[in-house]
Amino acid sequence: QALPYIRCVGDSWPMTRERAYFEASALREHGRLCPDHVPEVYHFDRAMSLIGMRYIKPPHIILRKGLIAGVEYPLLAEHMADYMAKTLFFTSLLYNSTTEHKKQVARYCENVEMCRLTEQVVFSDPYMVSKYNRWNSPLLDKDAEAVREDDGLKLEIAELKSMFIERAQALIHGDLHTGSIMVTPDSTQVIDPEFAFYAPMGYDIGAFLGNLILAYFAQDGHADQANDRKAYKQWILKTIEESWNLFQQKFLGLWNKHKDGNGEAYLPAIYNNPELLSVVQKKYMTGLLHDSLGFGSAKMIRRIVGIAHVEDFDSIEDASKRASCERRALDCGKAILKGRRQFESIEQVIALVQSVTHD
Amino acid sequence: QALPYIRCVGDSWPMTRERAYFEASALREHGRLCPDHVPEVYHFDRAMSLIGMRYIKPPHIILRKGLIAGVEYPLLAEHMADYMAKTLFFTSLLYNSTTEHKKQVARYCENVEMCRLTEQVVFSDPYMVSKYNRWNSPLLDKDAEAVREDDGLKLEIAELKSMFIERAQALIHGDLHTGSIMVTPDSTQVIDPEFAFYAPMGYDIGAFLGNLILAYFAQDGHADQANDRKAYKQWILKTIEESWNLFQQKFLGLWNKHKDGNGEAYLPAIYNNPELLSVVQKKYMTGLLHDSLGFGSAKMIRRIVGIAHVEDFDSIEDASKRASCERRALDCGKAILKGRRQFESIEQVIALVQSVTHD
């Protein structure tokens, strides 16, 4: 049941209960497209903002907690690639007509309060003085200040912010971090799409990959004599790599399967030449990688110097060790945000992540 | 009064009468923002699809007819720059909050039939075999075929088409060619915004500039012993240059005036540094120039090989002379579409236009 304020802040920050309506709508729509990874909605009561949905049973846990505990999920990349490919492809103009698309866009425009919340906490507050910002102070005071004074970052974040608000590319989850995913070694279930609306696909992909990168940088803070976490860090990197590569493979698979359908973006009468289609797809996927890296790095940065932090870092007790992990994640996020257009593959991104060493 | 079909095609192509509702809405909204260049709506009857609006008296004529006749309009660039700057700036996120923006976006999403018509005739048909296409046959048969087989063009037009449908940047007129503008030497009145919805600003700017470039290339077909049209061609080029440069100046003037307002895109708390704001604005305007050139050249191309042609060329009686003019316009459009990201100023575009010589 949605309460009339933001749960993690309290009743000092009121929030529309109507978000439950969009959460239920998105659960149903994404569930129809990808039933394996979205719980069923049994009942929705709009007046009560109440969603009755499948109970995701133990031993499912929140993915973020599994990542902190150092648990490997061998099917995670495969499952998330499947979820992202299906939910994003089938709600885009690659599959739909403009008429269907605009109808849905108009409907989700009403989830504007959630859109505004994202704008503020992801694209605005971290780059200005705001009472909501917090960070590992005083250790990261200089780092937070550097973000607020970095004109290069501000130039990039402005472009992403406008793209986020203006560009209705697909029905995105809108908050696809590792806290919105419940897992066992065999199962992956995506929950909490209360921020759903039509926005750039890269916002979802970036949220997932960016939060995996945060988990990677947090590992050194969780290492101990029993487990140095080195192998686990490699598993996270492999999961990032596979998530993107499998997503790309599945997404292009859907595109090729439906290329003669009703999708408005690439009419078969024009793009019926296999060589041209392949060039078009390469350009599309490179653009999508750059968008994903932009949004993903923005989400990394905001988790270090903005209002909402991640348990990956918060659970590191030693403040100095935590600051060291956070600083590397922040530096990595800044480098990706500024340099995202240089990357042509996820492997190049992973090489950058590995190159960010201890300070 | 809107009829239930496309006027220039006839009742074989049905069209929603609801376009009159969006035309009246856009006339009112743009008229509020720029009363000097938009006629007042006195009455709108939705059931009858009937708009009662100010009669634009003689000696006002359609700008396109003036351009064919070789009439100079010394205030045209100034007036159109004023119209475009005001209507686009004040309906964008540079001025509005996300809440207001999304509300309007949702409303105009319903004008989807007109959006689909544009998609088809501007972004699709010219690049495929379509019964609606026509051209100056047989003289331009090879040219029309070359467009349908040009993978480079198809790659670019796909990007523009998706941007056109997905990106709700501002409330655009949607059909801002020289046939939608009525003029005298002292007055400029913009009419017929039945294609209005939230889309990229560059679509309007490009429509206007692209149609001026078409008028430029048509002049050689209207030259005679009494008037070689050389001076008039220079006036058109000067008008193109001034239209963009004055637009840019006025648009940035509005931005600077309202930079501490409620616009969501660039919050004053982040972009309060004059040096940063200047870099941000330069990037924004360069992007807008590239968008305008992309959409403008797409509109040039479609007027040569698509369904709807322009009187500028159609009024050239000698088919061979007409083909020569059209071919140069087409070649120019193709060069701009493919190379638009290389241009940093409108002067560079004009140099390209001048470099396209007789075949």
From TrEMBL, chains A, B:
Name the Enzyme Commission number(s) assigned to this protein: 2.7.1.100
Instruction: Name any one GO molecular function.
Output: S-methyl-5-thioribose kinase activity
The organism named in the record is Aegilops tauschii subsp. strangulata
Q: Quaternary arrangement and interactors, per the entry?
A: Homodimer.
Q: Which GO terms describe its biological process?
A: methionine biosynthetic process
Top enzyme class: transferase
The question of whether Cytoplasm is a record keyword is answered with no
Family of this protein: Belongs to the methylthioribose kinase family.
- Say yes or no: keyword Nucleotide-binding present: yes
Enumerate the UniProt keywords alphabetically: ATP-binding, Kinase, Nucleotide-binding, Transferase
Locate the Aminoglycoside phosphotransferase domain: which residues? 37-222
Q: Which InterPro entries match?
A: Aminoglycoside_PTrfase, Kinase-like_dom_sf, Methylthioribose_kinase
Q: What is this protein called?
A: S-methyl-5-thioribose kinase
